[in-house]
Design goal:
Elements (H helix, E strand, L loop, with lengths): L2 H13 L23 E8 L3 E3 L10 E8 L6 E7 L1 H4 L8 E12 L2 E12 L4 E11 L7 E9 L4 E8 L2
Antiparallel strand pairs: 1-3, 1-9, 2-3, 3-4, 4-5, 5-6, 6-7, 7-8, 8-9
Length: about 170
Amino acid sequence: MRAKDRFFGMLFVAMAGAGPAAAGDGIASPMGNSEAANCRSVHAVLQKRVIVDCPAGQAFDFCFTREVVDSAGLLTGRMEFFSDPSKEAKIEHAPGQLRFYGTIKVVTASGELRKEENGILDIKSKDWAGLSTITGGTGDFEGATGNLASFGNVNGTGMQIGTICRE
């Protein structure tokens, strides 16, 4: 088995059953099961990232944006990633892999979704995978909860799947 396959396999085994799934949308979610009718599945493409300057006066050490295209339209918008070096320093990592932690906001036409993400970057292949916990939002995302998993390559596109529940 290739190291890349083991890398993604271990991540997705770890996330199995980690949170709610959408009910009534007819799409199976890898994030668990839920009876809540206000949950929706997300199946989004993450476009190639664009590295940007981090906001002045903040502790972020790496920032980028990328466009998100959700097949259902719920999460289509602009994602902004801000790494948090104070939390990264507390996470051990294996040789050849870099663990990351960051805050993310996704700005859509119907509001802003906020989440925190932990992930792993394979330094050689530049493949990455992360798990996000939704921490809230504005507009249609006010009081939102759920979990999202994302994966891809730093030099290309990625995918994001999971569930968003709204009050």
